[in-house]
Write a structure and sequence with these properties.
The chain is of the alpha/beta class. The protein has 10 helices and 26 strands. The protein has an 8-stranded parallel β-sheet. It is globular, with a radius of gyration of 23 Å. Bound molecules: alpha-L-arabinofuranose.
């Protein structure tokens, strides 16, 4: 059997995970909101129309932040359409997704729902069709205590205490031809800078995210990022990154290697940020907000435009998608020193963690599990694992390590977790030198695997792909040995004591 070796030491620190790395995304898109988290009349819906079967699955993910309301949607959205008495709200066209937006779920409904989840919001303002004035108004509505038009309007809507929303995105993917009212880098950079100033004059405690390149494939990457930062560097805390890893025509070994491009993307964006930092002789280090990341696969349901809540990119992910998804999560963890916000995209029904049927069941996609594991056990000091793993080549990637891994040490809880993926079609033995954790014992070894890489979860078979316990880890004298099954996601947990 093939063998990989790993050293895990407290000295190989990358950085402490920021609380906001464990985030997701709710956009007015497809059936994410309507027939997803919100479905009045559903058997599990409460008086606000929130589906509690979905809510329970969301809560178990232990999310720290949720971005809202878009995405592309936000570039054509008037947030005022979604506040106030519901009977006075009117449906409008959503040109980003060619849908009908009924406006029965808006800002205050989202804030109530996210309160039940127990996460913090990240709000996107419309810098597509709108600009400074709208951004000033929404921040006054949300964060100003009272005595002004917008703050008093909020109070009249029953929300006496300000929402105090801390993190705001200055638009979304405005470099993209698909975006409503895209901009050039200079136009966007200047607009973002002036909007940032106006928003911070109203609430200086907020943090802002400037729009970075939508993908690394954009012809304007990384020039866009450089230009935008040149305008905004002193006024924002984060630059955004997005990435959707899709298998498309690739074979499995190639697909499993694709998170290596995400690694390059992160390195290149860091280099661009640091170039602008040095050009400006700045003492500030720009943080990264990976506020849209996921895997992508062809949808199982065809989208019907100009409907309310028609499923868009509603997809049953396969077992192999969960492996690539896990690897993308590990890639983000490996940059915990610079990536301080990350949002998996999207939470429900669109390339989701959770699938629903209108009027029916809710269940977990296989990708739900790696997210849940990292969210539960991946908080703490991220440790670079020194790995000597066999490698493979494909036509597009060379030297792909069969074992992809990272370790997280939680000093407070006295726990060490090794996340490890076996990218190959045969089992591999992983030898871990954890002598630095000399009084630690094995707590558990969780594994997600399936005989078929194309296995999916359905409404009737919701647990076809689900994690189990593995008894294949042994520990003696600070050296642990695990058997990683073929094509598997592993969470090997050690803790102090017995
Ligand atoms: O699938 C979600 C969409 O993908 C977001 O609206 C957009 O930002 C990205 O292109």
């Amino acid at each position: 059997m093939k063998k990989a070796k790993m050293i895990v030491s407290k000295d190989f620190t990358i950085g402490r995970t920021n609380e906001r790395l464990f985030g997701s995304f709710v956009e007015h898109m497809g059936s994410v909101v309507y027939n997803g988290i919100y479905e009045p009349g559903h058997a599990t819906a409460d008086e606000d129309g929130f589906r509690h079967d979905v809510l329970e699955l969301v809560k178990a993910l232990n999310l720290s932040v949720i971005r809202y309301p878009g995405g592309n949607f936000s570039s054509g959205y008037n947030w005022e359409d979604g506040i106030g008495p519901k009977e006075l709200r009117i449906p409008k066209t959503d040109i980003a997704w060619r849908a009908i937006e009924p406006n029965t779920f808006g800002l205050n409904e989202f804030m109530k729902w996210i309160g039940l989840v127990g996460a913090d919001p990240i709000m996107t303002v419309n810098l597509g069709t709108r600009g400074i004035e709208e951004a000033r108004d929404i921040i006054e509505y949300c964060n100003f205590s009272g005595g002004t038009y917008w703050s008093d309007l909020r109070k009249s809507h029953g929300i006496k205490t300000p929402h105090h929303i801390k993190t705001w995105c200055l638009g979304n993917e405005l470099d993209g031809e698909w975006q409503v009212a895209r901009k050039t880098a200079d136009n966007y950079g200047l607009l973002a800078c002036e909007t940032a100033k106006a928003m911070k004059w109203i609430d200086p405690t907020i943090e802002l995210v400037a729009v970075g390149s939508s993908t690394r494939q954009m012809p304007t990457f990384p020039e866009w990022d450089k230009t935008v930062l040149t305008h905004t560097y002193d006024h924002v805390e984060y630059l955004s990154l997005h990435n959707y890893i899709g298998k498309r025509e690739a074979d499995t070994p190639t697909y499993l290697a694709m998170p290596m491009d995400m690694e390059k993307q992160i390195q290149e964006v860091i280099a661009t940020c640091d170039y602008v930092k040095s050009k400006k002789r700045s003492n500030k280090t720009m943080q990264l907000s990976f506020d849209e990341w996921n895997v992508w696969r062809e949808p199982d349901i065809e989208y019907t435009p100009w409907q309310i809540g028609s499923p868009y990119d509603w997809v049953k992910f396969h077992m192999e998608d969960a492996l690539v998804f896990g690897s993308a999560m590990l890639t983000i963890l490996k940059h915990a020193d610079r990536i301080t916000i990350a949002c998996q995209s999207l939470l429900v029904n669109t390339i989701p963690l959770i699938l629903t049927e209108k009027g029916g069941k809710a269940w977990r996609n296989p990708t739900y599990y790696p997210f849940e594991h990292v969210s539960r056990y991946g908080r703490g000091e991220v440790l670079r694992t020194l790995v000597d793993s066999p490698k493979y080549d494909t036509s597009s990637y060379s030297d792909v390590p069969i074992v992809d891994s990272v370790a997280v040490y939680n000093e407070e809880k006295e726990e060490l977790t090794v996340f490890a993926i076996n990218r190959s079609d045969e089992p591999i033995v992983l030898e871990m030198d954890i002598r630095d954790f000399n009084q630690y014992t094995i707590k558990e070894h969780i594994v997600l695997k399936h005989e078929s890489l194309h296995a999916v979860n359905t409404a009737d078979q919701p647990l076809e792909v689900h994690p189990g316990q593995c008894q294949d880890t042994m520990l003696s004298d600070g050296r642990a040995t695990s058997r990683l099954d073929k094509y598997s996601w592993n969470v090997i947990r050690f803790h102090m004591g017995l």
